[in-house]
Amino acid sequence: MRPLDTRELGGADALDAPVGAPRYSRFRVRAALGLRPAVAPSLLFIPLGLLLGPSGVGLISHEVVPHLAPIVSASLVVLGIFIGLAVGRRRPSPRLVAAAALEAALTMGVVSGAVLYLLRTWGIVLDLPLTLVAVALGIVASVSSAPAEARGQHASLAASIADFDDVLPVVAGAVVLGLVHPLGPAKALTLGTWAVVFAVMIAVAADLLFRSATGGERGAFLVGAIGLIAGGAAYVGGSPLLAGFVAGIAWSRLHHSSAAVAENFGRLQHPFMVAMLLIAGIVVEFSMLVVWLAVPVVLFRLVGKLLGASVAGRLVPSGAISELGAALVAPGVIGVAFALQLAHVTGSAGSAIVSAAAIATVVNELLGAFVAPGPRTA
Amino acid sequence: MTRLFALTVCVVGVWLTVASVDREPVAPYATALGIGFALVAAPLAGALFERLHLPRVSGYLAFGLLCGPYIANIITRPMARELRLVNGIAVALIAFIAGLELNYRRLRPRLPAIVRLGGTTLVVMYGLLLPLLWLAWPWLPIAPDVAGLTRFALAAVLTSIVVSFSPTVTIAVIADTRARGPLSELVLAVVILADLVLILVFTLNMQFARWMLDASSARDVSLLAQLAWEIGGSIAFGALVGALFALYVRFIGREVTLVLLTTCAVLSEVATRAHVEPLLAALAAGLVVENIAADFGDALRDAVEQGALPVLVVFFAAAGASLQLDALATLGLVALAISAVRLASIRAGIAAGIRLSGLGQGAEPVWMGLVSQAGVTLGLGILIAREFPDWGGRVQALVVALIALHELIGPILFRAALARSGEIGGMDQSSPAA
């Protein structure tokens, strides 16, 4: 079984304690803020954000949303670091990486293709190129979150595939952000590369700082490093998710950071994730367009995940295909985070994507709670 | 050496990042970079200052000043502006911590003496500063041609600003040095009580000035009611939030740091929207938790420790980056002269107050804790500038110069006083309810 401290929204803290109440056993997912009955954070905080935002009681207005961009960037970095740490610390076999990448690519392809076909057939006009919208939704759909307790070899492998299928969307997301960069793709490549180099520089600097830091200082340095990596990527229009991923890999190879980051991330991840999901809920707007986008994402994601599971299952011995497919249904939070980042870069044009992504995430999380074999992370 | 190398890597990285984009970046995207840079680099400046027996918060300020738009420009103007977005949470958190340190049972025996000390200090400061500012008015770069009662009214307004103190900086220095003892409690109580009185006096003086200048007379009646709402509403709202927070810690008790920061955000935002004073509301919340609710022990202490450092670092680095050195350059001499008179009046006030209150010579270093000026002073300056753009704008510039001086000197003096009285690190030696 994989160590919990490398999970997407995990961490060996009190929130991971199993929850009781048998009638809620279907929802025996990661506790959100430790509240009982425990629910996946997406199921609690996206609707809560929706309630607080302009589509709900209006406590938080549209004008506030641009100021929340740094939180989204930082959350993406946190997620990226988790994936990077998982890859770097666990050093998965090439077959496992290939299986996870294939599964993600197939889901991405199925959803992107289906959405593109439907958008063209329905004659929907958007402010962004239809291909870009379709690919973005494909990326949103391709991520999965792993069960929190994977018992047995097959279940554990299924969880590993669910974990590592995030790597391809991270890279694809960076490409999409490059394509919509205001200074053009060529400049985006230079700046995006700089964002990655900068992330490595900060990871190394933070490692040096961790060596002599005390408890409180370590927390400040870690938040600072996250802020720097997120700010650096956002400042140049790069991908905070990719920058965080690279920093995570770097930290996993640096002896001092590896332990310090793992120790502090358990505490740090929750504020970022909660804030990010709340923001996703705040920006959700209901319209027919959003429904037209969300429904195919949910449906074709299921098809893609089952198809992906069947292919991945041939590469690694992960038990029954249906069990593997079921383990991949819950989407986690990376898809929503990427959609938010895209919406911040593209402005109002991307708001339909983030709304569709948020709705699809909630629905998929519900589906995942019913079909998944055991407790899971968000 | 390792830390210096790490800092160099960060500085070079941030500088190259800022330089790599030619256009002016969209402000929100600069925020994370600014906050991240402050969180990594400012603690190092704080640690360096601590080695020199200076307050860490001065290190954070100096870092902000050095890297800010006036000197190195690593923290650019938009970044500095965005950094101040955390001010609301920071002020609320700092005041909340202050409330947690004000234990009524502990303070009750000395409360009459504290009130006498604070009251005497204010009266003496007013008595010295008002005539001096009135006499020096023709030479002040505000409205030299004004004469008679109007001149007296404007001088009275200016005096209430010059006299004001900084609860924020006082609390921050206490929190940062983890000081506990009679001196820190005395300074905190005097600063908070005095600023409450000063806000009231300022409001009355503004009313007087309006009457003399015949401006916005329609607002006259509502002003005192507004003040009553600000004070009463702040305390009521803060007490309610404090009670809810106490219940959360008692019955759920998880993710206390996150909930504490969220509580501070709520206090700051809702208080601002409801036109009540966030500082007072947060103070009331902390007071309720400390004095009414049960002792929550380590959970709350850990939450405060984890939440306070990053917030303090960013708050003071932002303050340093936003210090307007141009105002100091233009009005430096005038500000210096006023500052010297203010310092003398604080010393005289405290000396008289000690005699009247019978607190004894142990209270003599209190004056060193009253030098800082920051948010409250600036807030009052902004109020004048908003209502009287002409001379009020010039008052604001002078206030900014005064703040720049006192924000740099004040924490150093206060830390020295705490060190002299042996209170630094006192929080680590005794439990909060002790």
Any descriptors?
heterodimer; A: about 375 residues; mainly alpha; B: about 425 residues; 18 helices; about 0% strand
How would you describe what is shown here?
- The complex is a heterodimer of chains A (378) and B (434).
- Chain A contains 14 helices and no strands.
- The longest helix of chain A is centred in the N-terminal third of the chain and has 29 residues, at 94-122.
- Helices cover 70% and strands 0% of the residues of chain A.
- Chain B contains 18 helices and no strands.
- At the A-B interface, helix 2, helix 7, helix 8 and helix 10 of A face helix 1, helix 2, helix 12 and helix 14 of B.
Topology:
The complex is a heterodimer of chains A (378) and B (434).
Chain A: H1 41-52, H2 69-90, H3 94-122, H4 130-142, H5 153-164, H6 167-179, H7 185-212, H8 215-236, H9 240-253, H10 255-283, H11 288-315, H12 321-327, H13 334-346, H14 351-371
Chain B: H1 2-20, H2 27-51, H3 56-67, H4 77-83, H5 87-101, H6 104-107, H7 111-136, H8 148-163, H9 167-177, H10 182-213, H11 220-251, H12 256-273, H13 278-291, H14 298-322, H15 325-357, H16 375-387, H17 389-420, H18 426-429
Helix pairs in contact in B: 1-2, 2-3, 2-4, 2-14, 3-14, 3-17, 4-14, 5-9, 5-12, 5-13, 5-14, 7-8, 7-10, 7-15, 8-10, 9-10, 9-17, 10-11, 11-12, 11-13, 12-13, 12-14, 15-17, 16-17
